Amino acid sequence: MRHKPNRKGFSLVELQISFLVFAIGVAGLGPLVVMQSRHLTKIESRFNANNTYYLSPSNDDWARKLGAGASITPFDPGPRATSPILVMDDSDTSFVTVGEDWNPETNESYQGNCQKHIGGDGTAIARWEFTGLPAGWYDVRATWHEDDMLTTAAPFTVYEGTENKGETPIDQQVAPSGEVIDGKPWQSLKIVSITSGTLTVELTDASADPVVADAIRLIPLKNDIQINSLEKSLSNEDVTAHVTVTVQVPQ
Questions:
Q1: Structural domain 87-221, CATH architecture
Q2: Span 11-26, mean pLDDT?
Q3: What is the mean predicted confidence (pLDDT) over 91-102?
Q4: This model's pTM is above 0.70
Q5: C-alpha radius of gyration, the chain, whole number
Q6: Residue 227 CA neighbour count, 13 Å, CB half
Q7: Contact 205, 99 (CB under 8 A)
């Protein structure tokens, strides 16, 4: 069997092809280098060497989805705002009761405790107040530990700011019918739009049988937005986003 000797060089044609491929690569990088240089020059022109600049995280969901997660500012933005509370138990300090005879009970409720009141005339009130909420749609859910001695129509009322969004009677003799979160099922009371930043849920004793106040959870509802592609212009700073939106909130 004959063996071809190992080549120790390359032909003129191969050398020409290599230079051609290199030239094509350099030609393709040229516009990118020019564009990057122009953008860098624009950015540098906006800064003063004598000033201090801060990177401020964006609070806008759209900005973060599109990759613009922060902005640069000459002013100290201070500490970032804390996230709003979205679940409130009867043991939390923001939960309050109005009227007498609310009795704490230890059982299989959320966090192991709840507040119970005998049926009355509606003057005894349990109140969960959420503040600092971003504008949007929220599913307001409640949980409780079911008991045959409780009411079949516990009167829960939801307020957006000071606006009454309606009452929802709840059968507390049966377990909540809803998604299990933190080991407990949560039943939807109402879906509401929040613009004031404040949402309040109230439960009164306006019932022939006892009512229990346990916990309230807010579930933010957002449209499902999928970014399919992004196109960056080579001549300016425009970016075109192609997205698919699945509407999941009331219109």
A1: Sandwich (2.60)
A2: 64
A3: 95
A4: no
A5: 31
A6: 13
A7: yes
CA distance 191 to 221: 9
First-last CA distance in the chain: 80
* Cβ-contact 203, 158 below 8 angstroms: no
Q: How many CB atoms lie within 10 A of CB 63?
A: 14
- Alpha helix (H) ranges present in the chain? 12-45, 61-65
| Parallel/antiparallel/unpaired status of strands 154-160 and 163-170 | antiparallel
Over the stretch 196-245, which tens digit does the pLDDT of each residue have?
A: 999 999 999 999 999 999 999 999 987 777 778 888 877 777 888 888 87
Contact 202, 124 (CB under 8 A): no
Please state the domain extents for the chain: 13-45, 87-221
Torsion sign (Cα): 193, 70, 83, 244: positive
Residue 154 has pLDDT above 80, yes or no: yes
C-alpha–C-alpha distance, residues 239 and 227, integer Å = 13
Cα gap 141→187, rounded to integer Å: 5
Write phi, then psi, for 200 (nearest 5 degrees): -125, 135
Phi, psi of 172, rounded to the nearest 5 degrees: -90, 5
